[in-house]
Structures are given as C-alpha cells and as structure tokens.
Amino acid sequence: MKKLFVLIMLLSTVSLFSKDILFEAKGVCFLPSNQIFKQTYNHAAPEIGLELTGFVGRNVYGFVSVDFFNKNGQTSIFGDTTNLQMTQFGVGLKYFIDVGEGSGFYFGLGAQPTYYSILNDSPFVEHEQSGWTFGGISKFGLIVDIPHNLFFDFFVAYSFVHTQAFTPFNSNIQFDGANLNGTLLGIGIGYRFH
Amino acid sequence: MKKLWIFILLNYFFSMQFFASNQVVDTIPLEDVGAFQMLVNQEGTVGYALGFLAGLVFVVDLQTNTVIQLVVPEIHSSVSLYGAFSLDQTKIYQALFQQNQISILDVPTKTYLDPIVSDWINQPFALALSVDGQYLYVSNFGNNDIIIVDTQLNQVVNRIQSDLFHQIYYLAITPDGSKMYVCNSSVNSQVGTVSIVNLQNNTVIGNVDDPDDLLNNPWFMTITTDGTRGYVSNFQQNGPIAIIDIATNRVVGKVLDPYGYINYPFSISLTTDGTRGYVTNLNDQNASNASTIAIFDVNGNVVLQKVTDENPPTLHGSYVMTLNPANTFGYACNLQDQIISVIQLGPITIATPINIQAITKINQFLMQKSFVNVISWQYPAYAIAPVGYKIFTDAGLVNQIGYVSATTVPLQFLDFGCVLGKQYNYYVVAVDADGNQSLPAFVQIRAAVL
Known about the structure:
By secondary structure, chain A is mainly beta.
C-alpha cells in the first residue's frame, strides 16, 4: 500500500508539472456484474469522482482518480437493510489517439485500491465490515474539447475488485469473499491546463 | 395471610380443573383384569366395569374413581363382551361369548340372577336394548343372526336371520325405536356392510347404500340423539368414520381427519348436546401401540383435537369409551393395561396447526450470510380461529422462542442465526382469545441449504 501511495504521488507530481493537464469531475453509472450485488443493491447505482490526467510523453498520460460509491440495499429474501460505501482510488496510464481538432480517444489501464465499508442492519450477522482490497480498472473514452479550455470526457470502464474471506463450517455466520466488479458508464466535465 | 394462601391454592386447583378439559385426569386400576366396557348409571355416580375375561363386574364409585366392590359370577366366562342396562337400570345384561349365555346382574343386590340360556345363543357378542326396554337384541357371532330376549321373561323369544348378516360386531337402535342397524364386519371375501332391521316386524330391510365403499370393516355404530345420522367406525388403518343418513339409509360421507388421529377406530361416543364425538383408536390391529381418542365436531364432521394423555400414556388398548350422563367425564376401558382412564370432557377449544413445514434459507448479505429456519404452517379453516401461535423448542412447551399473530401472512416463524448441520425442533401451538392452547404441531429440521 505504501508503494502504491508513492506511485500515486509520483504520477500526481508528473501530471502537475506536465505540459498538458486535464482535471475533471465525473458522474458515473455503476452496473455491477455480480448477482448478489445486484440482488442486494440493485442493478445500477450512481457514483461520483474526480480525476487528474497529465501528459507523460508520446501520447501517454498518467492518471490518478478517486470515486465515491454509496448505496442502501436490502437482502433479497428477508429484506434486512444494508449500506455499502466504496472509495476507489485509481492510478494508471492512458494512451491517447487524436482524431481531430480538440478531440481524441483514449484507453487506459490502472490499479484500483478500494476501501469498502458495509453496515448491515441485522442482529444475526456482523454489523460492520470494512477494509482495503486491491483491484484494477480498464478504461476507454473520448475527450472532446469545448471553448474556454473546458472539455467533456465520455467513457466506459470496467472495474475488477474482489475481497477474500474464510469461515469455519459450524459458525452461524458464514463470511463470503465479495465480487465488486462492474461496468462504469460515465461522463466528466473538466478544465484543461495547456 | 393463611386464608389468602388457602384461597390462592383453591383458586389454582379449580382453575387447573377447569382447563383440564379433554384430557386424562385419573385412572382406575382393575386388579389385573381388563374391562371391555363400563356402564354408568343415570346419576353418573356409579360405574359398572364389565370384566373382559372372567365375566366379573367392578363397581366403581365415580366420585372417588375407586373400585368399591367386585362382583364375581358363579360361572366364569373366559371372554365376555358388551353389556347393557335394563331400562330402569336395575339389571345389567352381559354377553358371555364362550359360555353362550347372557348373564344378568341384579344391580341393587349386586348378585347374579339365572342367566339367559337358549340353543339359539351361539357366541353372543353385541347387545342392544329396545327403546321401550321390552326386548334385548343380541348378536350371535357363531350363527350370524340376532336373537330377541324378552326382558320381562328373561327368555329368548325370537330371532332375526338374514343372508346379509356376517360376523356381526355391533347393533345400534334409532332413538325412535323403529330401526336397528347391524354392523357386519369384513370377513374372508365378504366386504363390510351395515344392514337395516325394521323393528316393527323384526325383518331385514336391506343394506345401507354405500356408494363410495366407506363401510370397509364396520365394528361400531352410534346414532345422534335427534336420530338423523349414524356414525360407523371401520376398524382399519385410517378408519374411516362413515356417516349414514338415517332417513335415506345411505352413506353420505365420512368424518374428515386432517391430523390423522383416526386409526383403527373402535367406539364412538357422542355428547348428548350433539356437538362432539369421541372416537377411541387402537392405532393398530393388536392394540400394541398407545391408543388415541380423537374428538370430532359433529356439526362439521371433522376431527379437531385429541384427548391429551399423560406421558407415559394411560390410553392403551382403549376399546369402549362411555360418557357420563352430564357429559363431564368419559371412561375409556384400557384392556391392554387393565385400567380405566378417566377423561375430563369439555368443549373443543382450538385446533392444532396443520401442514407444518420447515426449510432452511440463506439471509445473504454482500460479504456474509446467515441461515434462517423458516417454519410455516396452516390452520384449519373450519376450526375456532386463534389469536396467535406460540413457537417452542421443546415438547414440554417451556422454551418459547416466538409468537406469531394469527393475522400474519403467510403464517410463518423465522428462526435466525441457525448453524448448518445442526438439528432443530419446533413446536407450534395455536392460542385462542382465552389463552387456551392447542396441541402442538411438531417439525424437526437439520439446517441445510439445498
């Protein structure tokens, strides 16, 4: 985790001192791929985030991002309420392809350390579960410049995040590893520093 | 203070007696000789238990439930069966099966009179007194016929013969005295039937029409006091108790038995108010299991309850149960254990839940799951509505783990936090507005997710 933090800081510093910097706020629709996730928190959920992208060289940009997810849900059969919060940090590289004046496609890959916190409203399970887990993210997007150094970022991404768990068989609570994977459909608006 | 304690104790005693309805409250031992049937006098104060093996009669004080006198006949019969009072209850007639005689006990003096003997008597079995008390009808097991005894002369004066008769187990006379029904049990290739005798001319009219073949092995019959219906027990697994419409001489149905309490039924006793029927069930052919006394609603023709017995059970080999005239107590003769169980009678309070089931389900959270035993049941629509259900984990109904209101839909109880592989027992009792509880419905489950 320490190395990751160093990497984030490094890429942030590179981005800040690079000749082309993009800073944006994002709105995302998260589409989980896991069935239990869908049954508990619905098939789609909103997410918001910030992202900083900076030129590194040869069409390659580095990015750092942070996204926030907060959703209430219910267990499928018994309707116990539960809340999931995720803070997903992203760090990685994007490769840009210019397709014309002021617009370009990009695709990117990155690491995605995630902090999760779940509150379960049932006396028969553990009330709070939280911790760090590590995942990855792949992105594909289109940047469209608009006047006044502003730009739109239309993107689709896929997030890979898993958690691990183990429980003895004869316990009245069984802990499960969770699959937090999902597709992200998003739009961002930002300011471009040339 | 002392008076207060006495008051509390007396109050407790009487409240316990009040709530002890339809349950065995006492037993009367019969000194190693079982009784087949007990006759109760009109006042309900004295019972006459007819010894099965020696033709003995135990005189029982029904205030104290103790045997106060044993009347021993000069001639011991190895098997003696049904008995009957004379109309004025000064005599008791008893069928001495192997002596081919009808004994007569003079009730006031507790002495035996000369028995009724006749060449026509051959293995006498069931007795029925005519409504006017003038004639005693006795079925002959050996001859497959019925002899008629003049009770003034104590002599056999006639007999009724018919090809329709075979292995007669019981005789029942309608309250108006016009007809007698003859229970012909199934024997060899002959199926069970109920024949009808016109008592005006002592001729056999025919057999009861039985379109659904419910009369598979008739062993006992009783007729409602209004004379509209007859109930016939069929001594077979799951009975049934067939219902005869007396006006049309046709089987019109059977007593519904949602709990499966009817099993090798023997006798049927109806309360005089026509609301309840008590059915003794031997539960197997040889009475090797504990007996059950099922209670059915005569208006709805459905079993709603059974008599609560102690543990260990006292009802064992319960052949004939007799109700006292006030219908406050019933006396079940337990031939197997040579005792009489005294049952305090009362209204049917509340029915046992039916169709109880248990299944383990997962309460799935994103990163953990717990296991829930879901206990579901139903309540018979025809029974008195409960206000709720108590859920217990022990047969003694001590450890209550939940309460479910009767308005809950669906009727179920969720036992959260179960452990996979562990066995769980659940007892669900219905509770009425007065706090009366039904017998428990039981289900067992080993928590498992399929």
